[in-house]
Amino acid sequence: MKAQMLEQIKGKLIVSCQALEDEPLHSAWIMSRMALAAFQGGAAAIRANSVVDIQKIMETVDLPVIAILKRDYPGSDVFITATLQEVDELMVAKPPMIAMDATLHTRPGELQLPELVAAIRARYPELLLMADIATVEEARHAALLGFDCVGTTLQGYTPETKGKSLADHHYAFLREVIEAVRVPVIAEGNVATPEMAAECLKLGAHAVVVGGAITRPQHITRRFVDAMIQPTQLQ
Protein backbone atom coordinates (compact mmCIF):
# COMPACT_ATOMS: atom_id res chain seq x y z
CA MET A 1 0.00 0.00 0.00
CA LYS A 2 2.87 2.36 0.80
CA ALA A 3 4.46 1.85 -2.60
CA GLN A 4 1.07 2.31 -4.24
CA MET A 5 0.61 5.92 -3.12
CA LEU A 6 4.19 6.90 -3.85
CA GLU A 7 3.82 5.44 -7.33
CA GLN A 8 0.46 7.17 -7.79
CA ILE A 9 1.94 10.63 -7.17
CA LYS A 10 5.19 10.09 -9.09
CA GLY A 11 5.72 12.84 -11.64
CA LYS A 12 2.43 14.44 -10.67
CA LEU A 13 0.96 17.54 -9.03
CA ILE A 14 -0.20 17.61 -5.41
CA VAL A 15 -2.43 20.55 -4.56
CA SER A 16 -2.33 21.97 -1.05
CA CYS A 17 -5.86 22.96 -0.01
CA GLN A 18 -5.48 24.92 3.20
CA ALA A 19 -7.01 28.02 4.73
CA LEU A 20 -6.16 29.14 8.26
CA GLU A 21 -8.74 30.57 10.64
CA ASP A 22 -7.93 34.18 9.73
CA GLU A 23 -8.22 33.56 5.98
CA PRO A 24 -11.37 34.19 3.92
CA LEU A 25 -11.77 30.63 2.63
CA HIS A 26 -11.48 28.95 6.04
CA SER A 27 -14.14 26.23 5.79
CA ALA A 28 -14.05 22.45 5.46
CA TRP A 29 -16.74 22.65 2.76
CA ILE A 30 -14.80 25.26 0.77
CA MET A 31 -11.58 23.23 1.02
CA SER A 32 -13.46 20.16 -0.21
CA ARG A 33 -14.60 22.15 -3.25
CA MET A 34 -11.04 23.35 -3.80
CA ALA A 35 -9.97 19.70 -3.72
CA LEU A 36 -12.69 18.80 -6.22
CA ALA A 37 -11.49 21.57 -8.54
CA ALA A 38 -7.92 20.29 -8.17
CA PHE A 39 -9.10 16.75 -8.93
CA GLN A 40 -10.95 17.92 -12.03
CA GLY A 41 -7.82 19.78 -13.12
CA GLY A 42 -5.72 16.63 -12.91
CA ALA A 43 -4.11 16.72 -9.45
CA ALA A 44 -2.88 13.35 -8.20
CA ALA A 45 -3.18 14.06 -4.47
CA ILE A 46 -4.20 16.71 -1.94
CA ARG A 47 -2.32 18.12 1.03
CA ALA A 48 -4.65 19.37 3.76
CA ASN A 49 -4.65 20.71 7.30
CA SER A 50 -7.02 19.71 10.16
CA VAL A 51 -9.14 16.64 10.72
CA VAL A 52 -12.42 18.25 9.63
CA ASP A 53 -10.95 19.50 6.34
CA ILE A 54 -9.34 16.14 5.61
CA GLN A 55 -12.50 14.17 6.34
CA LYS A 56 -14.58 16.44 4.11
CA ILE A 57 -12.00 16.27 1.31
CA MET A 58 -11.79 12.47 1.51
CA GLU A 59 -15.59 12.29 1.30
CA THR A 60 -15.55 14.49 -1.81
CA VAL A 61 -12.66 13.27 -3.95
CA ASP A 62 -11.07 9.90 -4.55
CA LEU A 63 -7.52 11.11 -4.15
CA PRO A 64 -4.87 10.28 -1.54
CA VAL A 65 -4.38 12.96 1.10
CA ILE A 66 -1.18 14.12 2.74
CA ALA A 67 -2.49 15.12 6.14
CA ILE A 68 -1.08 17.72 8.52
CA LEU A 69 -2.28 19.38 11.69
CA LYS A 70 -0.89 22.84 12.42
CA ARG A 71 -0.83 23.81 16.08
CA ASP A 72 1.24 26.40 17.91
CA TYR A 73 3.07 25.43 21.10
CA PRO A 74 4.75 27.89 23.48
CA GLY A 75 8.52 27.66 23.50
CA SER A 76 8.77 25.85 20.16
CA ASP A 77 8.61 26.97 16.53
CA VAL A 78 7.61 23.47 15.40
CA PHE A 79 3.93 23.62 14.46
CA ILE A 80 3.32 21.12 11.63
CA THR A 81 2.16 17.84 13.22
CA ALA A 82 4.40 18.53 16.18
CA THR A 83 3.55 15.70 18.60
CA LEU A 84 2.05 12.22 18.77
CA GLN A 85 -1.24 13.81 19.80
CA GLU A 86 -1.61 15.46 16.38
CA VAL A 87 -0.83 12.17 14.65
CA ASP A 88 -3.47 10.36 16.73
CA GLU A 89 -6.03 13.04 15.91
CA LEU A 90 -5.28 12.88 12.18
CA MET A 91 -5.55 9.10 12.15
CA VAL A 92 -9.25 9.41 12.97
CA ALA A 93 -9.57 10.34 9.28
CA LYS A 94 -7.23 7.48 8.25
CA PRO A 95 -5.13 9.37 5.68
CA PRO A 96 -2.52 7.30 3.85
CA MET A 97 0.25 9.82 4.55
CA ILE A 98 1.02 12.33 7.28
CA ALA A 99 3.57 15.11 6.88
CA MET A 100 5.41 16.56 9.85
CA ASP A 101 8.09 19.09 10.66
CA ALA A 102 11.36 17.15 10.51
CA THR A 103 13.69 20.05 11.21
CA LEU A 104 16.30 19.77 13.94
CA HIS A 105 14.49 22.31 16.10
CA THR A 106 13.37 21.42 19.62
CA ARG A 107 9.90 19.92 19.55
CA PRO A 108 7.17 20.41 22.11
CA GLY A 109 6.23 17.47 24.31
CA GLU A 110 8.34 14.61 25.59
CA LEU A 111 9.32 13.02 22.28
CA GLN A 112 11.94 14.45 19.98
CA LEU A 113 12.02 13.42 16.33
CA PRO A 114 13.74 9.98 16.55
CA GLU A 115 11.50 8.83 19.41
CA LEU A 116 8.43 10.32 17.77
CA VAL A 117 9.03 8.52 14.48
CA ALA A 118 9.60 5.25 16.34
CA ALA A 119 6.36 5.71 18.28
CA ILE A 120 4.40 6.44 15.10
CA ARG A 121 5.87 3.41 13.31
CA ALA A 122 4.94 1.16 16.24
CA ARG A 123 1.38 2.51 16.44
CA TYR A 124 0.63 2.95 12.71
CA PRO A 125 2.94 0.62 10.71
CA GLU A 126 1.11 1.16 7.39
CA LEU A 127 1.19 4.98 7.56
CA LEU A 128 3.45 6.85 5.15
CA LEU A 129 5.49 9.65 6.71
CA MET A 130 6.64 12.77 4.85
CA ALA A 131 9.43 14.87 6.34
CA ASP A 132 9.05 18.63 5.94
CA ILE A 133 12.62 19.94 6.03
CA ALA A 134 14.51 23.19 5.52
CA THR A 135 18.14 22.09 5.11
CA VAL A 136 20.10 19.31 3.43
CA GLU A 137 21.29 18.11 6.86
CA GLU A 138 17.67 17.75 7.96
CA ALA A 139 16.86 15.80 4.79
CA ARG A 140 19.67 13.35 5.49
CA HIS A 141 18.57 13.00 9.11
CA ALA A 142 14.97 12.35 8.09
CA ALA A 143 16.01 9.69 5.59
CA LEU A 144 18.09 7.94 8.26
CA LEU A 145 15.09 7.95 10.58
CA GLY A 146 13.07 6.11 7.97
CA PHE A 147 10.75 8.75 6.55
CA ASP A 148 9.15 7.53 3.34
CA CYS A 149 9.71 10.81 1.50
CA VAL A 150 11.22 14.24 2.07
CA GLY A 151 9.66 17.59 1.20
CA THR A 152 11.44 20.92 0.78
CA THR A 153 8.43 22.53 2.48
CA LEU A 154 10.15 24.56 5.17
CA GLN A 155 13.08 26.04 3.29
CA GLY A 156 12.74 29.79 3.68
CA TYR A 157 10.44 29.46 6.70
CA THR A 158 12.94 28.67 9.46
CA PRO A 159 15.28 31.18 11.13
CA GLU A 160 18.38 29.71 9.48
CA THR A 161 16.83 29.68 5.98
CA LYS A 162 14.73 32.85 6.11
CA GLY A 163 14.67 34.71 2.80
CA LYS A 164 15.70 31.69 0.74
CA SER A 165 13.55 30.38 -2.10
CA LEU A 166 13.36 27.03 -3.87
CA ALA A 167 14.29 28.60 -7.21
CA ASP A 168 17.45 30.31 -5.89
CA HIS A 169 20.63 29.53 -7.89
CA HIS A 170 18.68 27.38 -10.37
CA TYR A 171 17.07 25.22 -7.67
CA ALA A 172 20.39 24.45 -5.99
CA PHE A 173 18.74 23.39 -2.72
CA LEU A 174 16.37 20.98 -4.42
CA ARG A 175 19.21 19.45 -6.41
CA GLU A 176 21.32 19.05 -3.26
CA VAL A 177 18.50 17.34 -1.38
CA ILE A 178 17.83 14.95 -4.28
CA GLU A 179 21.53 14.04 -4.37
CA ALA A 180 21.72 13.64 -0.58
CA VAL A 181 18.93 11.09 -0.02
CA ARG A 182 17.63 7.94 -1.65
CA VAL A 183 13.99 8.40 -0.65
CA PRO A 184 11.61 10.32 -2.95
CA VAL A 185 11.95 14.11 -2.73
CA ILE A 186 8.79 16.19 -3.06
CA ALA A 187 9.32 19.78 -4.19
CA GLU A 188 7.25 22.18 -2.13
CA GLY A 189 7.46 25.81 -1.10
CA ASN A 190 6.69 28.85 -3.24
CA VAL A 191 6.25 26.91 -6.46
CA ALA A 192 4.50 29.83 -8.13
CA THR A 193 4.18 28.88 -11.80
CA PRO A 194 3.60 25.81 -13.99
CA GLU A 195 7.07 26.33 -15.40
CA MET A 196 8.60 26.08 -11.92
CA ALA A 197 6.70 22.86 -11.24
CA ALA A 198 7.87 21.36 -14.52
CA GLU A 199 11.47 22.35 -13.78
CA CYS A 200 11.33 20.65 -10.36
CA LEU A 201 10.29 17.40 -12.03
CA LYS A 202 12.97 17.81 -14.68
CA LEU A 203 15.60 18.10 -11.94
CA GLY A 204 14.46 14.85 -10.34
CA ALA A 205 11.72 15.69 -7.86
CA HIS A 206 9.34 12.78 -7.29
CA ALA A 207 6.29 15.08 -7.22
CA VAL A 208 5.45 18.75 -6.72
CA VAL A 209 3.18 20.40 -4.16
CA VAL A 210 1.57 23.72 -5.13
CA GLY A 211 -0.56 25.63 -2.67
CA GLY A 212 -0.97 29.38 -2.66
CA ALA A 213 -0.54 29.79 -6.42
CA ILE A 214 -3.70 27.70 -6.89
CA THR A 215 -5.79 27.83 -3.73
CA ARG A 216 -5.20 31.20 -2.06
CA PRO A 217 -7.04 33.82 -4.13
CA GLN A 218 -5.96 36.67 -1.86
CA HIS A 219 -2.31 35.87 -2.68
CA ILE A 220 -3.04 35.45 -6.37
CA THR A 221 -4.86 38.79 -6.42
CA ARG A 222 -1.94 40.50 -4.66
CA ARG A 223 0.49 39.21 -7.29
CA PHE A 224 -1.60 40.83 -10.02
CA VAL A 225 -2.02 44.07 -8.06
CA ASP A 226 1.70 44.32 -7.31
CA ALA A 227 2.59 43.68 -10.95
CA MET A 228 0.21 46.42 -12.10
CA ILE A 229 1.56 49.15 -9.84
CA GLN A 230 3.04 51.88 -12.03
CA PRO A 231 6.59 53.06 -11.23
CA THR A 232 5.24 56.52 -10.40
CA GLN A 233 3.05 55.02 -7.69
CA LEU A 234 6.11 53.60 -5.95
CA GLN A 235 7.79 57.00 -5.61
Please tell me about this protein's structure.
- By secondary structure, the chain is an alpha/beta fold.
- It has one domain: TIM Barrel.
- The protein is built from 11 helices and 8 strands.
- An 8-stranded parallel β-barrel has the order 1-2-3-4-5-6-7-8, surrounded by 7 helices.
- Strand 6, helix 7 and strand 7 form a beta-alpha-beta unit.
- The termini are far apart.
- The mean pLDDT is 95.
Which structural traits does this protein have?
alpha/beta; 235 residues; 8 strands; eight-stranded parallel beta barrel; TIM Barrel; globular; single chain
Uncertain stretches of 5 or more adjacent residues: none
What's the CATH topology name?
A: TIM Barrel
Oligomer: single chain
Number of strands: 8
Distance between termini? 58 Å
Topology diagram in text:
Layout: H1 2-9, E1 13-17, H2 28-41, E2 45-49, H3 51-60, E3 65-68, H4 84-90, E4 97-101, H5 113-123, E5 128-132, H6 136-145, E6 149-151, H7 168-180, E7 185-188, H8 194-202, E8 207-210, H9 212-215, H10 217-228, H11 231-234
Parallel strand pairs: 1-2, 1-8, 2-3, 3-4, 4-5, 5-6, 6-7, 7-8
Helix pairs in contact: 2-3
Summarize, please.
The protein has 235 residues and is α/β, with parallel strands linked by helices. Helix content is 43%, strand content 15%. The chain has eleven helices and eight strands.
